[in-house]
Amino acid sequence: MRGLTAGLSGALFGLGLYVSDMVNPARVLAFLDVAGDWDPTLAFVMAGALIPMAVAWRVAARRGRALCGAEMPGPPKGRIDGRLIGGAALFGLGWGLVGLCPGPALAIIGLTDANGWIFAASMIAGMLGWGAAMAMRSRPA
Amino acid sequence: MPDWGFGLLGGLMIGCAAALLLLANGRIAGISGILGEALAGRRLDEGLPFLAGLIAAPGLVGLASRAPVIAPAAPLGLVIAGGLVVGVGTRLGSGCTSGHGVCGLSRLSPRSMAATGTFMVVAALTVFVTRHVIGGL
Lengths: 141, 137
Known about the structure:
Distance between the termini of chain B: 32 Å
Number of helices of chain B: 6
Structural class of chain B: mainly alpha
Helix content of chain B: over 70%
Order of helices and strands of chain B: HHHHHH
Structural class of chain A: mainly alpha
Oligomer: heterodimer
Distance between the termini of chain A: 43 Å
Number of strands of chain B: 0
């Protein structure tokens, strides 16, 4: 049951990225290029995505538990630190250089060429490298 | 349909997908979070089907409709560097466009608002520098 709903959610998420054209790096970069020939499409993608999720959070708060019985994610924690801002800044740099964020990078795997696969592989390498660095740091000296 | 119509429709689909994962599974649809957890071997029972659907659905539609290839135009070195910093940055900052941008902003999380503001501004500045200051990238 949990696997089925997760698979459906992933498929609908991927189709939404495809329909909105957020999978297209050229369109993403045109949105980020506020000083050039600005393309507002991604603002509509964001607005469209926020509406169902805002409703879902209200339903989640009232229900307390998910349909599968799992607990809902806890309330957002307010701590804004250097790690959060530094990570977001690094992500923004890569997003602005190439025009791909993690969702589209995966959603185009079946649609792209070597450049797209190399981006996805580099992103995964970055995540694995970060995980390995954290594991080494948490190990007692 | 105009481009903004496709954007709005696709956005609603993304939001419904995230709402389904939250209400059915109690899980936040942050792609970097789900991928990072799966790479660490955690929560694979949900992570693998989600990632399989995310990759297979647009791939099959693109194949069936004979869609043209969608690929980043940046030079190889920037593609590799960009991929690496997106991977490290999203794990360090605990989220990306979906986790902070869609799921976090929709519950008015202060952390997600700060993260989304940061990556939007840095990405726009990066594009400004590469297109209008250095040029030709």
